[in-house]
Automatic annotation (TrEMBL):
GO terms for cellular component: plasma membrane. The chain crosses the membrane at residues 34-51, 63-84, 96-119, 126-149, 155-177, 189-208, 214-232, 253-277, 289-307, 319-335, 347-369, 390-408, 472-489. This is MFS transporter. PANTHER family: EXPORT PROTEIN, MAJOR FACILITATOR SUPERFAMILY MULTIDRUG TRANSPORTER MFSC. One of its GO terms (molecular function) is transmembrane transporter activity. It comes from Streptomyces showdoensis.
Length: 505
């Protein structure tokens, strides 16, 4: 199962490293590359609940196989994207299909692992599961950088093929028993949650393009949240809902979900923003940017194992409190050091931020799953993964908007200081922001004239402008972890006990 989910973890980071080459070859728009990343995360958030429910209804082994096949076929098609007018739409669409495959695969795989271990050993087991998966996520940037530099960026998608083949062989050899549960599939509920999440994240993502004062922005955000509210009301009246909302009556489960939400606002977006920062402000190659992220995973992997042991011995609360404090401090210190433009000065804070996230993810996820109603591990896993990936989508969208706004203001000030008129400076600044935010292309402009020459002369200053703009993003991540701490202290501190399934299950 760890091998099966390896593809989904690797794919969250490997594409960010290849982003500059993808943009240069395909000519994506300013927000196109962020949507290539965000489409995958959004599909995960939208369909995780469906994946968890399908694992319960049809058995986890069958859903693991189907999810793996969907994921790998979409990966091949992403790598085969043609150049031209349809490149951006093609890539975004099949990245979303990848997300659908991962949404089917992950809850089913995790349900298999959870069912194997008794509750008193589950913390260490899932810490190993998440720790190794996290280590495989660290392989993503390294592998992506090497494949992009030595072959082609398309290989970052094709690399999933051998992994999928091995995963399918191992799944067959494991002889996993499928234990379908009675019930029906809530198709209207699945549609409501997918549309609600999609609309709300679309509003956040397009806020920079449309403006926060645009009716379209608020129509999407408010409309999406309204649909999610309708979804909640609809689910309460069903005998076999997509999500059994009774689980949120457990205070510890609700706290686990809230802490996961705030942690994931930072966890996945940090890969995208830190890799682009490394390539723009530090002039790092894709391989060097990958090593930059490796510091994060050293802290993550070590803390993940420690957090699992704390969960087994003392419950989730100590691990959640420690993780949110370390994460908030780590991200704040990292943000402060971004303008030093030195990877050497930043690595301790990068590792500290990673350790904070490592203390959170496995204990919060495991404690939540341990509180499953009627041992419906697939369904509860679907809930927690929906929360995690929706938060990642929102974080990427909100922080992307924040970065673009701060970057434009910084570059406008830089160009005005070099004698460019305010109107022209603002226009040029927006173009520069479009060229660097999201894909790390800091190539100086060509041509002659005052504007072009002033912009070329200012490129070193613009690198600092980008670093300063990223400070707002990383301070925002620190704030997210601080809010997570306020939730963690409300955890009742009790330890979950095994819940036996009812006779009909």
């Amino acid at each position: 199962m760890m091998f099966a989910v390896a593809m989904t973890f690797i794919d969250q980071t490997i594409v960010s490293i290849a982003a500059p080459d993808i943009v240069r070859e395909l000519g994506l728009s300013s927000s196109g590359m962020q949507w290539v990343v965000n489409a995958y995360l959004l599909a995960l958030a939208a369909f995780f609940a469906l994946g968890g429910r399908l694992a319960d209804l049809y058995g986890p082994r069958r859903v693991v196989v189907v999810g793996t096949l969907v994921f790998v076929i979409a990966s091949v098609l992403c790598g085969c994207v043609p150049s031209g007018d349809y490149a951006q739409s093609w890539l975004i669409a099949f990245r979303a299909v990848q997300g659908l495959g991962a949404a089917l695969l992950f809850p089913a795989a995790l349900a298999v692992v959870v069912a194997v271990f008794p509750v008193e050993r589950r913390g260490r087991a899932l810490a190993l599961f998440f720790g190794i998966s996290g280590a495989l996520t660290a392989v993503g940037p390294l592998l992506g950088g090497w494949l992009t530099a030595s072959w082609t960026w398309r290989a970052v998608f094709w690399v999933n093929v051998p992994v999928a083949v091995i995963a399918l062989i191992l799944t067959a050899l494991a002889h996993i028993a499928d234990r379908p549960r009675p019930g029906t599939l809530d198709v209207p509920g699945a549609a409501l949650v997918a549309v609600g999440m999609g609309l709300s994240v679309l509003g956040f993502q397009q806020a920079w393009t449309w403006g926060w004062g645009s009716w379209a922005t608020w129509l999407c955000v408010v409309g999406g949240l309204a649909i999610l509210y309708v979804f909640v009301r609809y689910e309460r009246g069903l005998r076999h809902p997509l999500i059994d909302l009774r689980v949120f009556r457990d205070k510890a489960f609700a706290v686990d979900a809230a802490v996961l939400f705030f942690a994931m606002l930072a966890f996945v977006p940090v890969f995208f923003f830190s890799s682009v920062y490394a390539q723009v402000s530090l002039s790092a190659s894709p391989n060097q940017a990958a090593l930059f992220l490796l510091y994060f995973f050293v802290g993550f992997a070590l803390a993940s194992q420690w957090g699992g042991r704390i969960l087994d011995k003392r419950g989730a609360r100590p691990a959640l409190k420690a993780g949110t404090i370390l994460g908030a401090v780590g991200f704040a210190l990292w943000a402060h050091e971004l303008t030093n433009l030195s990877m050497h000065d930043q690595w301790p804070y990068v590792a500290l931020a990673g350790a904070g996230i490592g203390f959170i993810l496995a204990p919060a996820s495991t404690d939540a799953v341990n509180r499953a109603i009627g041992a419906s591990y697939g369904e509860v896993t679907g809930i927690t993964q929906t929360v995690r990936n929706y938060a990642a989508s929102v974080g990427l969208a909100v922080f992307g908007t924040l970065l673009s706004r701060a970057m434009t203001e910084n570059v406008t000030d830089t160009l005005r200081a070099r004698g460019i008129s305010p109107a022209v400076a603002d226009q040029v600044a927006r173009g520069i922001t479009d060229s660097v935010s999201g894909h790390g292309d800091a190539t100086p402009p060509t041509g002659t004239g005052q504007v072009a020459e002033a912009t070329r002369d200012a490129m070193s200053a613009i690198q600092m402008d980008f670093a300063q703009a990223n400070q707002w993003v990383f301070y925002g991540m620190a704030v997210a972890l601080a809010l997570g701490f306020l939730c963690a202290v409300r955890h009742p501190g009790d330890r979950a006990t095994a819940k036996a399934p009812t006779p009909s299950e």
